[in-house]
Amino acid sequence: MTTKSKVLFLCRKNSHFKFRKFSNKISRYTPDILERSTHNILTLYTPDTTHSKHITELALTMFDAWKDLHKLDKNYRKLLQTASLLHDIGITINFYSHARHSAYMIQNAQIFGLSHREQLITSAIAGWHNGVSKNYFRDRTYKEMLSDEHWQAINKLSLLLALAESLDYSQTNQVRDIQPRIEKKSAVLTLHAEGIPSIEMHQLKQHIRWFAKVFEVELSIQLG
Known about the structure:
Layout: H1 3-29, H2 33-45, H3 50-65, H4 67-70, H5 75-86, H6 98-108, H7 116-127, H8 134-138, H9 148-167, E1 175-183, E2 186-193, H10 198-205, H11 208-215, E3 218-223
Parallel strand pairs: 2-3
Antiparallel strand pairs: 1-2
Helix pairs in contact: 3-5, 3-9, 5-7, 5-9, 6-7, 7-9
């Protein structure tokens, strides 16, 4: 090994050692860097985070209870959680087309703890929570990064987010809790609410056909 090669080797080794020490420090003080960076983005663009956090809890409750329906691994749970928390940040640009603006903002945000592909999937979940819009994503240059399997997962998760959004459509937390379950050949969603959540139930019914198409079972909505 030449003197020049030895110097380069030692520099690279020292640089790698410093980076590893820096990474260890981050892990020690920030146990979940994804959670921290998502929270920073959420609070930057959302003055009141109550709605977003409630939506996230509802979406994750459905993900956990209906795992036999969606058949997705637990890694997708963190993508759904991130998309749910940030699904409304696009309102800062335009209210009526906020879903696609949220997707764009998520794509270009500094979200630590996700790979590039995972960040694209997260943006698509948020971008589809008002309905599937394949053209917006498939026309982009990065479309080759996502397989048909990824798009199927996005469709399932964006549906869960759409249902969660419908459950707090009035943003009054009237639906406090839900109990999703599977009975024979149907999925049941029991709502626990203060009074009759007429607006939320109306919005939920808009997604019944989408649910049947994606999961191939009927969705039954009940009041608990």
